[in-house]
Task: structure prediction
Amino acid sequence: MSCSRMDLPPDVEAVRQKIRSVKTSPSLQGLCCLCNDGVLRSFSSSNVVVDAIPLSNQEIMSSRLLLPDMSQQMVENTFQNIDGHQVPPEKLLNPDDEILPENLRRGSPAVTSEKD
Result:
């Protein structure tokens, strides 16, 4: 028997599984977020990119259904024309500063692709 949620449409369940597949920091003290370029990134507690998975615009829009109602419109507005598959491979693990979540930009150590 599958552990998937039966009430989710297949496309939303597929995105949920992709999100769950993101590698996390070995310390379990990092964070995972969908960055402004459409790439789902996992960061260690020292702001090192641990894993990066590009999401298509369709996947991003499908992922809205996994969020509270009040967040769904924000995701639609923010990521309306964003496709993570357009991000150059070298930027997946080394994103530009403006792509990072704000809390990782403010005086935090630079994000690198080294594993912690």
